[in-house]
Specification:
Blueprint (H helix, E strand, L loop, with lengths): L2 E5 L5 H14 L11 H9 L6 E7 L12 E10 L9 E8 L8 H15 L4 E7 L3 H9 L3 E11 L5 E10 L1
Parallel strand pairs: 4-5
Antiparallel strand pairs: 1-2, 2-3, 3-4, 5-7, 6-7
Helix pairs in contact: 1-2
Protein name: GNAT family N-acetyltransferase
Organism: Bifidobacterium callitrichidarum
Keywords: Acyltransferase, Transferase
């Protein structure tokens, strides 16, 4: 398999920041309107205390054109607090971002599969995804993994391009 999944380490904050900021700038996958600083991303990573966490996907250099390439972080994801009241413990909000150069190459599928395994191992009972309703790639992943859409909020958020977007809400019983 051309990917490795592992917990994020301090050395991963820069690639996490770069991948996230590429998504901010492109629009269509986050409601942050401006790129985040390295310190902001570091604080975000460090805010994930067990049973939550941030994880990265590295390429292994095993695909054709990547032979002998050093491993590199090509995506990241998180299991985050869904809602900060104790009654929601066991429900996690999923987030995942893939380097634009690696989109459409299986990294997102690999990452979501591993995030769900991690959520189950951490005894989560539900996983939720909150996604722009026109984000075809993420919607396809939700459907592929059996998530159910449970809501749609029209004109909920803008992205960095100034586009007003509907939000779709998805869940999976773990």
């Amino acid at each position: 398999m051309p990917f490795v999944f592992r917990p994020a380490e301090p050395r991963d904050v820069q690639p996490i920041t770069d991948i996230y900021n590429a998504s901010v700038i492109a629009g269509g996958s986050t409601a942050d309107l401006t790129p985040r600083t390295l310190d902001q991303r570091r604080d975000w990573v460090e805010s994930h205390k067990p049973p939550y966490g941030v994880f990265v996907v590295e390429s292994t250099g095993e695909t054709g054109e990547e032979t002998d390439a050093a491993p590199q972080v090509v995506g990241f994801g998180a299991l985050s607090v869904f809602y900060d009241r104790a009654g929601y413990d066991g429900v996690t909000d999923l987030a995942y971002y893939i380097d634009p150069a690696w989109q459409g190459r299986g990294a997102g599928t690999f990452l979501l599969d591993k995030l769900l395994d991690e959520a189950r191992a951490r005894r989560m009972r539900k996983a939720c995804g909150i996604i722009f309703a026109d984000n075809a790639g993420s919607i396809a992943l939700m459907k592929r993994f059996g998530f159910t859409r449970f809501g749609l909020m029209p004109a909920a958020a803008t992205d960095s391009t100034g586009t007003m977007r509907d939000m779709s809400y998805w869940y999976l019983d773990l």
